[in-house]
Design brief:
Layout: H1 2-15, H2 21-38, H3 42-47, H4 55-58, H5 64-74, H6 81-84, H7 86-92, H8 94-97, E1 101-103, H9 109-118, E2 121-126, E3 135-139, H10 146-158, E4 161-165, H11 171-174, E5 184-190, E6 196-205, E7 220-225, E8 230-231, E9 235-236, E10 242-243, H12 261-271, E11 280-287, E12 293-299, H13 305-308, H14 316-331
Antiparallel strand pairs: 1-4, 2-3, 2-4, 5-6, 5-11, 6-7, 7-8, 9-10, 11-12
Helix pairs in contact: 5-14
């Protein structure tokens, strides 16, 4: 029933009132064929528009099945906890974080109180969490009583949170949406020869009033030409709506030149070498008001949807040769 609900939701989203019974039956047959022969998930089928692509174009997309294979070949399971646990991640990649942070699950109340005094506004997120869930900005009153501070401390500890100094983003990024820090998702692969390679990049932009820019949390994603740092395609959201300009601010998305792109490429290629047993990573990077980079987190299972949907280009031909070289090296 779950897959049928997914099929109904996505087919209606893609076709609306033009979804006739005949078209519905054809889609169901085609989805089933893709599933049986290639292991293609329903989400992949619709978000990449397989219904309008020939077989040779479909095979170019990095589907969820290919993602699982890439992760199994490239990422050592024993090291994945470094990326799942945000506190452990911050410790491991400390030289690239560039902001104050505190693990509420391990700190004392006095340490928490000092942090809040220094940073009355801060960002809290669960040590383990995905898609921007359980992430929230807090604005505290400098005159907050010790009792109120204690209550907040206990709440964040119960929720298993870390807290971080707020990032003041680059002014040109803020023009898109000022209520969220609009970040970059840069995917790297440490190749079989040991060199890090930037495989894809996107700019993620939040919507008005939202504190998160995450693609799975109402945000818009637009692909970056990794050679130049320029947005080379319209943005897209999870409902498959495409945007040349931001729908809230009116700022043009396509053609935007990401500031400090050389610093972005430098930080992710260095970070990619920190845990060599994890070769495939999607890095979230912020650019602050001084043009400096701040590493937010790394995702060892980075979903390729965000890097393929905006540009309507499958990335598997880029990944496949390197992944196979790594697989052969692992089996040697």
């Amino acid at each position: 029933m779950g897959r049928l609900k997914t099929f109904n939701r996505l087919s209606k989203l893609c076709f609306g009132k033009s979804l006739t019974l005949g078209l519905r039956l054809w889609l169901m047959a085609d989805v089933l064929w893709e599933r049986i022969r290639y292991g293609t998930e329903i989400q992949d089928y619709f978000q990449y528009g397989f219904y309008k692509l020939k077989n040779r174009e479909r095979r170019k997309y990095m589907t969820f099945t290919k993602l699982r294979y890439t992760i199994s070949v490239c990422n050592d399971p024993s090291k994945r906890s470094i990326f799942d646990d945000k506190a452990l991640f911050n410790k491991t990649f400390a030289k690239y974080i560039n902001r104050d942070w505190l693990d509420v699950t391990e700190c004392t109340f006095d340490e928490f109180s000092e942090f809040v005094k220094k940073h009355p506004s801060f960002f809290a997120k669960a040590r383990s969490g995905m898609f921007g869930k359980n992430a929230e900005k807090y604005d505290t009153d400098p005159a907050m009583t010790p009792e109120k501070t204690k209550q907040l401390f206990e709440k964040l500890r119960r929720n298993g949170c870390i807290i971080e100094q707020l990032i003041t983003q680059h002014p040109t990024l803020s023009t898109f949406n000022s209520t969220s820090v609009n970040t970059l998702r840069i995917v790297t692969l440490r190749c079989a020869d040991g060199t890090p390679r930037i495989m894809a990049g996107v700019l993620r932009i939040g919507r008005r009033g939202k504190s998160a820019d995450n693609f799975h949390h109402y945000g818009i994603a637009a692909t970056i030409d990794v050679a130049t740092g320029i947005i080379n395609a319209p943005g897209i959201d999870r409902n498959f709506k495409r945007y040349i300009i931001h729908p809230d601010s009116g700022e043009q998305i396509i053609g935007y030149n990401v500031p400090s792109w050389d610093k972005v490429t430098d930080i992710v290629t260095k970070a990619a070498m920190t845990v060599p047993q994890v070769r495939y990573v999607g890095w979230d990077v912020a650019i602050d008001d001084n043009g400096n980079t701040q590493l937010i987190e790394g995702n060892y299972g980075a979903d390729p949807d965000v890097t393929q949907m905006p540009c309507r280009t499958g990335k598997w031909p880029l990944f496949a040769p390197e992944v196979e070289k790594i697989a052969r090296k692992n089996n040697a």
